[in-house]
Amino acid sequence: MELLLRKITPDDAEAVAALEAQCFAMPWSREDFWREMRNELAEYVVGELDGRVIAYAGAWVSFDQAEVMHVAVASELRGQGVGTLVFGALIDAVKRRGAKSVTLEVRPSNVAAIKLYESFGLHSVGRRKGYYIDNGEDALIMWNTKL
Ligand SMILES: CC(C)(COP(=O)(O)OP(=O)(O)OC[C@H]1O[C@@H](n2cnc3c(N)ncnc32)[C@H](O)[C@@H]1OP(=O)(O)O)[C@@H](O)C(=O)NCCC(=O)NCCS
Asked: Please, what are the domains in the chain?
């Protein structure tokens, strides 16, 4: 698989929003992603396969801390290492901007995502009760403080 990993551009907003709608119960819109591209804190990477955006990951970097906002892979291409590549590219990008730690929230039921994050040294440090408003599920809070 010849995956191209690169920084997001405004032209990607449509494809990223389409993936977002496929992956999440409360998806961000194309306009939300355009706004992110004007957000100085935001860092987003996409994975492109044969000219098609099939994965993306994004974070906000504030001082030496990164907070992951999104990670997703097209459903038909999961389980082949794409998530690891795109998340790895995001971690590299936030480290270049000076991040020394990374945090995120994830549903406890999302085994694939938790495994992915653990492979980058994140571990669970607590829960936010009833965090996800679509089904009232808790969020696991994960951190890696030694990027
Ligand atoms: C989470 C997600 C990005 C992972 O992407 P992916 O391309 O499937 O990930 P990879 O193939 O690189 O696998 C990453 C790890 O997850 C594990 N994994 C992948 N799919 C799995 C599954 N269905 N069940 C259990 N583990 C799984 C892999 O074994 C691997 O772990 P390892 O490094 O210990 O071997 C993808 O499943 C996705 O887009 N999910 C929907 C969106 C989402 O939930 N995003 C996260 C929100 S917090």
From this structure: 3-144 (3.40.630.30)
Distance between Cα 31 and ligand 1 center (Å): 27
| Å from CA of 69 to ligand 1 middle | 16
- Ligand 1 pocket, residue 78 CB under 6 Å: yes
Report the C-alpha gap between 73 and 95 in whole angstroms: 22
Q: Residue-wise over 14-25: b if at least 16 C-beta within 10 A, else e? A: ebbbebbeebee
Number of residues that make up the chain: 147
pLDDT tens-digit map of 76-114: 999 999 999 999 999 999 999 999 999 999 999 999 999
For ligand 1, is residue 71 a contact (CB within 6 Å)? Answer: yes
pTM over 0.85: yes
pLDDT in tens, 10-59: 999 999 999 999 999 999 999 999 999 999 999 999 999 999 999 999 99
